[in-house]
């Protein structure tokens, strides 16, 4: 079972890392079933039994963590981030993000600005 879990997580990471080219009407269930040569329902059951969480919830949390990374550590626009992570548009991405974090993506963009302001502060000699 651990190997299947590792395989599932590897596919999720490969698809939602930000470099995957999403075809029109991308169907993750069909994609992972094809890659792992197992029925999606079976993969979901294994994932739930092992982790106590649904695969869909894991994927959403994974994507939200990637959104945070992109917002804080890159200059990419929200639309570009949405596209890279397989969302229809920035509005859909923001809604999913808020459903998980309770915050808007702009909050994390502000963190980036704060980090830049701190980094750019002059250093005073003691």
From TrEMBL:
InterPro entries: Homeodomain-like_sf, HTH_AraC. The keyword Ribonucleoprotein does not apply. One of its GO terms (molecular function) is sequence-specific DNA binding. SUPFAM superfamilies: Homeodomain-like. It comes from Chitinophaga solisilvae. Coiled coil: none annotated. SMART domains: HTH_ARAC. This is Helix-turn-helix domain-containing protein. It comes from the Bacteria. Keywords: Transcription, Transcription regulation.
């Amino acid at each position: 079972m651990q190997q299947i879990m590792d395989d599932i997580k590897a596919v999720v990471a490969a698809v939602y890392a930000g470099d995957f080219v999403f075809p029109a009407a991308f169907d993750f269930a069909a994609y992972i079933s094809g890659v792992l040569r197992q029925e999606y329902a079976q993969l979901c059951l294994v994932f739930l039994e092992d982790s106590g969480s649904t695969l869909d919830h894991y994927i959403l949390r994974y994507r939200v963590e990637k959104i945070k990374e992109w917002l804080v550590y890159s200059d990419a626009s929200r639309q570009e981030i949405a596209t890279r992570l397989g969302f229809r548009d920035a509005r859909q991405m923001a809604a999913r993000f808020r459903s998980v974090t309770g915050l808007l993506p702009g909050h994390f963009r502000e963190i980036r600005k704060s980090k830049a302001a701190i980094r750019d502060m002059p250093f005073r000699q003691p």
